[in-house]
Input
Amino acid sequence: MSPIQLSSAELEAAHRSGRLDWSVEQLQAKVLEIRRDIITVLAKSQTGHSGGPLSCADFGTVLFFHELNIDPHNPKWPERDFWHFSIGHVTPVIYSLMAERGYFPLRDLMKFRAFDGHCQGHPSAHDTPGIEVSAGSLGQGLSVCCGVAKAAKIDNHPRRVYCVMGDGEQQEGQIWEASMFAAHYELDNLCGIIDYNRKQIDGDVEAIMGIAPLADKWRSFGWHVIECKGHDVPDILRAFAEARAHKGQPSVILAHTVMGNSVSYMADDYRWHGKPPKPAEAEQALQELGTSYAEWSERLLNH
Amino acid sequence: MSTITLPEKVEMKKTREGFGRALVDLGEKDPRIVVLVGDLSESTMVHWFAEKFPDRFIQVGIAEQNMTCIAAGLAAMGKIPFFATYGAFASCRAADQIRVTVAYTNLPVKIGGAHGGISVGPDGATHQAMEEIAIIRSIPNMSMIVPCDFWETYKATFAAAAHPGPVYIRFGREDVPVVTDKDTPFTFGKGEIFAEGSDLTIIACGVMVYEALRAREQLADRGIRARVVDLHTVKPIDRALIERCARETGAIVTAEEHQVNGGLGGAVAEVVVQTGPVPMELVAVHDRFGQSGKPSELMDAFGLRAKDIVAAGEKVVARKRK
Output
C-alpha cells in the first residue's frame, strides 16, 4: 500500500473553510491517515470500537474532504452543511476526521475516552467543538437530520444535510418514522449514508434480525436509493454526486463496506465491533498500514 | 406576593387553551417559533397556530420519538420548537430521546405535555399521565413547569420560549378554575405565595393550587392558618422560598395530581431535609394506576381534593406540635 504522501501544504489546506473538492489520490492518501489515526487512538485508549470506524473511513473521508461545505474553525458558520453520525459509537473515526479537517488539534485524539480530554466515548456537543447534537442512543440521528433539513426548507437555505447510520441500526423503529417524514416532506437536501458492513455486536445482521432487502425497503419508503462500493473512493464520489443532483426526494447511499476493513485480523469479524486492539495487535495493524505506533502517535502528539 | 381570594363561583377554563393562545401570540412576535404536533392538533390546541402560521407548523403524525428528535434538529438550527402531544407519550415514550438528544445537547426544545393527571377521566390509566414530574426532573438540563390555570399556562409558555434550554410544560385535559389573572406575577423558577399563613405551608402545582386555596378556607374555620404557595416551576426548584416557608411555618403539605414517587412532594422534601427538616405530608396519587370515570369522581376517589389537603394539614400541624 503506497498512496501519495500529503504535503504539509496540503495538510494546511485541509483545514480551510468551504468544500475541499479533493482529488481521488488526495482522498485515498487521507483515508490511510484516518485509518492510522483510528488504530493509534484505540491503542492509546485501550477502550472503544474498532470495526465500524474502519468501515466508515472511506466514505467519511470523502464526506469531510470533498463533499461538505464547512468551516472547522467556525463550527456554527451559518452557511455550513450539517453532518451527523447517528451511530455515535464510531467516535474513533468521527474525531479523526474532525481533527484532520481542523476542528481541533490532532493531539486531542490521544485523550480519547480519557477523564481529562474532550473526546467522550460517544459524541458530546457539550464537550467537543463541532459536535452539534450529541448521539449515542441508536435510531435518533436521522430524525435530528430531518429537523435540520426541514429548518433549511423553511428558511429557503441551501444547506445540505448528511446522516451516517449503521446497518444494525436499521432495526430501530425510529429510523423508519424518520424515513417516512423525510419522504413526506420531500427533503431532497437530506442524504443518508448507511455503513452496510453486515455485522453487529452479536454477529451477522441477517442472523440477528434481518434487514434485507434494505434497498427495496428504502425505495418503498419513498427515497432515492444509491448503492456504492464503500471502500472505493471514485465510486463513493459518484454516489455523493448522484445524491446531490437528485431532486424531489431524499437520497440514501448504501455503502457496502467490510467491518474492520484494512486490518487483516479484524476484517469482516463481528467480534471487533466493540473492542480495541491490544498494544501488540495495534502494532501489527499499524505495520499493515505502513507505519508504527511510535511514528504515528508522535505525529498526533506533535500537532 | 399576591393574595388570591377565591369567589364563590370561579370561572372555568382549560389550561391547554393558554398554551394554544400563547403560541399564536409568540408566533407573531418571533419568527423562530415553530410548532410540531403528533396528530393531536385540536386536543393540544396548537390548531390556532397551524391556521395562522402554516409554514411554521409541522405535522409529524403518530411518531413521538421522531418528533422529539426533529424538534432537536430544528433547535440546533436556531429555531425555537414547541412540540405537543399527550404527557404519557412525551415523558415516557420519548424519554430516551429527551435524555440523549435534547437534554444532553441542551437544545431549546419546548415540550407541551397535555392530559396530565387523573382528571383526564374516561380515557383511563393509559392516558392519565402521572409520572412526568419524576421522569423529567431526573434529567439534567431539563426544566419543568406545571401551571395552575389558563393564565399561568399562557405565561409559562412565554417563559419557556425565553428560557435558553429545554422546558417541559404540563397541562391537563379538563376545564379548571381560573385562580390567577393577566397581572398575577409569574417568574420562571420562582414560586409565588398566593395566600399568607403561619401554621403550615401548602405547596401545590397544577390544578391542586385551586384545591389548596379551598383547603386554606376550610382550615381557617378550624383555627389553622395555612400559607399557600403556587410552585409552578418544579425544576429548577425555588429552594429559597421552600426553606423560608419551612422556617416560618414549621410544617409543609404538598399537593399534586401526580404519583407520590419522585413528584413535587419529593422535590420539596429534598430541599427541606437538607435545609431544615419540618414535618411534611404529601397529597398525591399513591403508587397506583388510574382508571376510567368522571374527572370529579376520580379526584375524589384518588384523594386529590381540598378535604384531603385539610386532613393532611391537620395531621402535619399535630405532628409539628408534638
Q: What stands out?
A: Chain B has two domains: 12-177, 192-321. The radius of gyration of chain B is 19 Å.
